[in-house]
Amino acid sequence: MTQTRTYPIACPTCEASFDAELYESVNVQTDPDLREALLKNQLNQSVCPDCGFTFRVDKPLLYSDPANRLLVYWIPVPPDRLAEGEDLCNELIRELLAMLPEDLDSPEIQMVINRVELIERIFSAEAGLNPRIIEYIKYQIYTRNSDKVNLETHGLLLNTHDSTDKNLCFVLQNMETMKFEAMLHYPRETYEVFREMFADEEKSVDLLELFPGPYISARASLRE
Question: Do 172 and 184 touch, CB atoms closer than 8 A?
């Protein structure tokens, strides 16, 4: 269900205080226009009534796409406060599950810490890709190419737009400048090999241990 709430906020330019109606959760099956607003960086935007400055307010947001069995909490925290973000996410998950019927088969609730990660999850789900296997591939790229891909300074993002039937495309992002610096191609057939391998119950346990959630991230796992 799509829900909004009014929050007191302050303009980052002139520091004027005012109330703004912001989204707590969005259901893109009932409100598909909100998906487009998110992709266009227009969701939870506010305009200062004093100076007219337009800015985005980052706050916890639940993104729901029932058609693709996707539930993602965006908890905007920096990487060095990841544990704090996971605690908040787990608290929100408990509150959400408490409101659902016990017999409801709810999809797994994932967590992301920024808008770019959320968009990656959206496109991955719409492409029918398993997020843990995608992160496992990133794990392989980081560990096997440590001389070229420094996980301390760079992140990897799946680019479904430029992926093909033959290759999955990953973008190397500088985490300081947030600029995209290079593209890496990974054989899609290897994704299918991993998908079949982790379909085995014993192997799937290994994958869950590597990425237990709710924050499923190869980079975070390797930096622990």
Answer: yes
